[in-house]
Fold this sequence. Notes:
Keywords: Membrane, Transmembrane, Transmembrane helix. The chain is mostly helical. It is 70% helix and 0% strand.
Amino acid sequence: MAKTHPNINDPNAFVLYRYHPSLAAAIIFIVLFTTSTIIHIVQAVRTRARFLIPFIIGGIFEILGYVGRAQSSQDQWNLGAFIQQSVLLLVAPALFAASIYMTLGRIILLLDGEKYSVVKKRYLTKIFVAGDIFSFLLQSG
């Protein structure tokens, strides 16, 4: 017997998506994030920039998240693909932000700019990471 799924337009029905995820958009973002991540990997290896590691991991999470979105466009009832895209696309920006905080800390250190910074360098990462965790908890709640 064939499975029947509820109508996505029925407001009382449980559905994972209330719209049809776009396969074309998912593919475009997979290509864009793959290209960008490869470029960042090359830069990180060439310059030995360890502060780019969270950025690269964030790029990989974005790629895998959009792979899940592409799978969801073909099968909207695939719970694994839904969870994959939801979690990875939510976590990736926090990793991008972590790289930005580390870069800011390096800039402040290199320019001897701690006296001009609102936040002291030693507290910078702690404050921003705490903000990221708080933001993540709010978004996932």
